[in-house]
Amino acid sequence: MFWQIINFFILVFVFNKYFKKPLGKMLDSRKKKITSDLSQAEDTKKAAIELQKESEEILRKAKIEANEILKTAEKKADERREAILDEAKTQREKIIKTAEMEAIKMKSDAKEMLQEEVKVLAVKLAETLIKEKINSKIESTLIDEFIDEVGEEK
């Protein structure tokens, strides 16, 4: 047991003499590396949080801009729809006016044609009546003359 204690102290002495400084340096460098890695990880985490906030802000702005674009597009669509409706109403009114003018013209043409036909029929009727009167006068004159002639011969 005595020898084990002596052996232990010798090991402690050798360890302190030869291994303490290199192991201490290695542990210190390892500690510094771990500390720097932790601080770097903390900085990276902060940067990531900041980038996340920026991306959320950009996304919020993009949504607002998209809504504005959508509202503008809807407004333009409404304006275009109104313009198309106004144009359609104008064309409808032009078509109605044109149709009314054509109807008036057709009515006038039909009236003129009827007047011409009435004139022709009136002339024919007059001719027929005149012929009948002439024929009846001629007949009555002829009959009267015949009677007069027959009466004088007797």
Question: How are the SSEs ordered, and which strands pair?
Answer:
Elements: H1 2-153
Describe the structure.
The model has no long low-confidence stretch (mean pLDDT 87). It is built from 1 helix and no strands. 99% of the residues lie in helices and 0% in strands. It has one domain. It has 154 residues and is mostly helical.
Count of extended strands:
0
Query: Which of globular, elongated, flat, extended, rod-shaped describes the shape?
Result: rod-shaped
How much is the radius of gyration in Å?
64 Å
Total domain modules: 1
Treating each run of at least 4 consecutive H or I residues as one helix, how many helices? 1
Order of helices and strands: H
What proportion strand? under 5%
- What's the main sheet like? none
Chain-averaged pLDDT: 87
Give the low-confidence spans: none
Taking the alpha carbons of the first and last residues, their distance comes to 209 Å
| Helix amount | over 70%
